[in-house]
Design goal:
Radius of gyration: 18 Å
Structural class: alpha/beta
Bound molecules: adenosine-5'-triphosphate, the ligand Cc1ncc(C[n+]2csc(CCO)c2C)c(N)n1
Strand content: 25-35%
Order of helices and strands: EEHEHHEHEHEHEEEEEEEEE
Distance between the termini: 38 Å
Catalytic activity: thiamine + ATP = thiamine diphosphate + AMP + H(+)
Helix content: 10-25%
Pathway: Cofactor biosynthesis; thiamine diphosphate biosynthesis; thiamine diphosphate from thiamine: step 1/1
EC number: 2.7.6.2
Number of strands: 15
Enzyme class: transferase
Organism: Helicostylum pulchrum
Strand order of the largest sheet: 5-4-3-2-6-7-8-15-10-13
Length: about 260
């Protein structure tokens, strides 16, 4: 994997494209985690826009439970593979997906979460295909706080992979990591906003922004001091310059 070059380039983002219905979305791998699927419209959009759909262990129970009321609907959401330590998938869910010929693979390493095991699975597939895919994980960032932090940590672990972007989608937000440097985030008001946040989770960051309701100019942000939460998008393009990686989050708002 190439290391990100440190030239002073602007990185362009359009995170809400993953939820668009216009078919222009760059293809990505969807990883389904073990949290309730409550926002079926956005789940459905992510499912349809994905090239691969991998499920982390108990994520399979969540798809099954969300759609089991109707066999026809349930059969519309057949993933490519279920992977993990398999301590969470219920027997009837396993039987159902086995009956649909889904590959179910047990991996028991004790240093990686089932989410990370699905990322490793994608890397295997990419070696076969000679192509790199973005990753969208959902439902992410709710539930257990240690799992939430593990998912944020995964953003940090993947940040030097220049060809790949990782997006975490929770019930109400899309969350990404902006590496140090200059960024332009292209926003689509019919899909996202207005609230957003920029959080210096790994280390303090000095931020300059344009396009937010509360813009910052060379402002040092850090835990214990200023963290830009409950901010709002005030333009279709947000410009952000940061001297350290920061987490960007924006509210999903499907119209
Ligand atoms: N309570 C939770 N809160 C938030 N995320 C979760 C929670 N439980 C699971 N996840 C996410 O879903 C993935 C699959 O979960 P799984 O069904 O394997 O539960 P687990 O055995 O508790 O997770 P792991 O083995 O990965 O620690 C996890 O790797 C994690 O990313
Ligand atoms: C320092 C350290 N802390 C916690 C774990 C535990 N752990 C982290 S990921 C994982 C897999 C869960 O399916 C487990 C058990 C570890 N290995 N090393």
């Amino acid at each position: 994997m190439l290391k990100k070059n440190l030239l002073n380039l602007v990185t362009h983002w359009c995170p809400s494209n993953i939820l668009a219905r216009d078919g222009k979305t760059k293809k990505f791998c969807l990883i389904i985690l073990n949290q309730p699927i409550t926002h079926v419209d956005s789940f459905n959009r992510l499912w349809d826009n994905a090239s691969f759909r991998f499920v982390a262990d108990g994520g399979s129970n969540r798809i099954y439970d969300a759609f089991k009321h109707d066999q026809h609907t349930l059969a519309r959401y057949i993933p490519d593979e279920i992977r993990g330590d398999l301590d969470s998938i219920r027997p009837e869910v396993r039987s159902y997906y086995e009956s649909k010929s889904v590959t179910i693979t047990k991996k028991t390493e004790q240093d990686s979460t089932d989410f990370m095991k699905c990322v490793a699975l994608l890397k295997e597939k990419e070696k076969e295909l000679g192509q790199i895919y973005d990753i969208v994980a959902t439902p992410a960032l709710g539930g257990r706080f240690d799992q939430t932090i593990a998912s944020i940590n995964l953003l940090y672990m993947m940040k030097d992979q220049v060809e790949r972007r990782v997006l975490l989608v929770s019930d109400e937000n899309i969350t990404i990591l902006l590496d140090k440097g200059a960024h332009q985030i292209h926003c689509q008001p019919e899909l996202e906003g207005p609230t957003c946040g920029i959080m210096p989770i790994g280390s303090p960051a000095t931020l300059t922004t344009k396009g937010l309701k509360w813009d910052m100019v060379d402002l040092k942000c850090e835990f214990g001091g200023m963290v830009s939460t409950s901010n709002a998008i005030d333009n279709d393009v947000i410009e952000i310059a940061t001297d350290s990686p920061v987490v960007w989050t924006v509210e999903i708002n499907l119209k």
